[in-house]
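Exercise 7b. Backbone tokens:
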């Protein structure tokens, strides 16, 4: 019997369009002879739309956006997402959910929590890993616990900045040196990130970052190469070969990632055996300290002196065939369709293990 896969995409997030592109790419890699594929679209307003079974790969992202007149919203039909003992007669019950949601309200543990409550298997990281991986401050604090080297940083919330902007500006100048990078704490795909080389640019960058989150982080700029490693697995994760990001502009921002193509990806990265070993050891450490599962892309800085500094991990990395994570695994010997198949099996394996837990005092 074909397994029923629910593709969950869109979302109330600045990364909505990225998610649609990812969902389209996944439909083109799934084997429709082995799976029944059901689209679940979340609008930018946060409404859930469950579509009819897809019979073939989707050619355009417009096909993935459903209107209210022809689809049902999740809150009124939550029973259709619950597992059924008579799955053969229940077309609505799903064997596994593939969350393809980037950013807040999807990648941050909120949707993962809903899927846990529904007791549905789902691909990727759980509630804790997703939420900790989304919050760059919490993530870096956990990295410190694991003994991972990273760049210095300062963080604060909007009210702290509004109350005493001068004190925080002085703290940044005392603890960091120009240039610095200003980022929303809870956002991905380089949205809201700016580079600042002086006080004036810093204040402008902070204003931009606060449009996307109530908490921001200021990181020390560092002269280094940007190297990334893919991690795949549950309790025994494995690493891909490393790859290098070479933006042709000042830094790897949203436009460079998704719009103008001004970025080179070098796979495998030209690093020494020792650096590669350190990258892989540290990627696994980061994966485990966040209690990750399924997939992670670990991003590093490698200095001219071959010092390895972890930057962040992405618990739902870009997932189109041209994205770094699938390309890293392609060069490691795992094709895009095979990667999706492995992720489905890892999700089912993790869910089955959870079903062995006792929820009574017997």
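Sequence design result:
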């Amino acid at each position: 019997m074909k397994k029923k896969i629910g593709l969950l995409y869109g979302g109330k997030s600045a990364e909505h369009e990225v998610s649609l592109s990812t969902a389209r790419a996944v439909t083109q890699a799934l084997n429709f002879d082995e799976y029944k594929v059901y689209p679940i679209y979340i609008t930018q307003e946060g409404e859930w739309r469950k579509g009819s079974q897809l019979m073939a790969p989707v050619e355009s992202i417009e096909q993935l956006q459903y209107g209210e007149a022809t689809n049902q919203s999740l809150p009124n039909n939550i029973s259709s997402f619950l597992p059924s003992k008579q799955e053969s007669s229940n077309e609505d019950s799903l064997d596994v959910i593939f969350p393809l949601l980037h950013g807040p309200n999807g990648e941050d543990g909120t949707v993962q929590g809903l899927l846990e409550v529904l007791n549905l298997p789902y691909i990727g990281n759980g509630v804790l890993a997703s939420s900790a991986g989304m919050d760059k401050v919490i993530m870096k604090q956990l990295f410190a616990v694991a003994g991972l080297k990273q760049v210095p940083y300062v963080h604060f919330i909007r009210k702290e900045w509004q109350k005493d902007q001068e004190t925080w500006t002085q703290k940044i100048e005392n603890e960091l040196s120009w240039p610095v990078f200003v980022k929303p704490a809870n956002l991905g795909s380089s949205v809201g990130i700016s580079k600042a080389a002086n006080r004036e640019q810093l204040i402008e960058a902070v204003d931009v970052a606060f449009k996307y989150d109530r908490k921001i982080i200021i990181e020390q700029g560092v002269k280094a190469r940007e190297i990334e490693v893919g991690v795949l697995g549950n309790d025994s994760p494995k690493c891909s070969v490393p790859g290098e990001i070479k933006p042709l502009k000042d830094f790897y921002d949203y436009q460079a990632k998704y719009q103008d193509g001004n970025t080179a990806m070098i796979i495998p990265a030209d690093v020494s055996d020792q650096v590669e070993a350190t990258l892989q050891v540290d990627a696994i450490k980061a994966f485990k300290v966040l209690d990750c599962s399924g997939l992670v892309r670990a991003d590093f800085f490698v200095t001219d002196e071959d010092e390895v500094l972890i930057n962040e991990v992405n618990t739902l990395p870009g997932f189109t065939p041209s994205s770094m994570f699938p390309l890293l695994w392609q060069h490691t010997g795992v094709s895009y369709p095979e990667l999706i198949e492995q992720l489905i099996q890892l999700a089912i394996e993790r869910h089955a293990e959870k079903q062995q837990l006792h929820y009574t005092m017997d």
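Instructor comment: Confidence is low (pLDDT under 50) at residues 83-89. The chain has three domains: 3-122, 133-149+223-352, 153-220.
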